[in-house]
Q: What sequence folds into this?
């Protein structure tokens, strides 16, 4: 079974088909897309952080004893960001470390607090089970056009394949 990382959670929330394509290593994220999703923001500020925690392949900033923090460009994917951070809180809890989370959005200069409640943990476990079933599925989830598609690294793959299918 594939181990689940923060990116799996992110893709699951954005598009289950994207999650499946990523897990099969079909294509890869473009630099452009990584910038959009704020990944590079963290990498560029890496050297400035004093205390960090490595959780799966992510490096999380420890703000103080109680909080871990992620820094993102904008809050347009806030729901997705929150689930990703909840997943990191969940992984920490598995290691016996209980924290709360903060997401700092640099563009809007706002900070959102995230808490892994019992209910959130239940929902997260359901998501993890669903992610596992997508990852072990032989076929990609059906294509569902959405506004995010135009920023997705798999856009050509999804839509050229569809056009080909339509043409046959
Ligand atoms: S292009 Fe759209 S449907 Fe295809 S993987 Fe990306 S988000 Fe999903």
A:
């Amino acid at each position: 079974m594939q181990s689940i990382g923060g990116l799996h959670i992110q893709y699951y929330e954005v598009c289950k088909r994207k999650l499946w394509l990523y897990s099969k290593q079909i294509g890869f994220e473009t630099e452009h897309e990584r910038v959009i999703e704020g990944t590079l923001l963290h990498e560029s500020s890496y050297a400035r952080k004093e205390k960090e925690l490595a959780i799966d392949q992510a490096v999380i900033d420890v703000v103080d004893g109680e909080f871990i923090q992620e820094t993102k460009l904008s809050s347009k994917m806030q729901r997705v960001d929150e689930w990703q951070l909840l997943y990191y809180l969940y992984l920490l809890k598995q290691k016996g470390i209980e924290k709360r989370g903060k997401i700092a959005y640099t563009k809007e200069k706002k900070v959102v607090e995230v808490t892994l409640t019992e209910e959130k943990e239940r929902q997260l476990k359901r998501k993890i089970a669903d992610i596992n079933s997508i990852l072990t599925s032989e076929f990609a989830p059906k294509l569902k056009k959405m506004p995010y598609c135009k920023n997705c690294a798999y856009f050509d793959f999804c839509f050229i394949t569809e056009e080909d299918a339509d043409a046959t």
About this structure: The beta strands are 52-55, 58-62, 67-72, 100-105, 110-114.
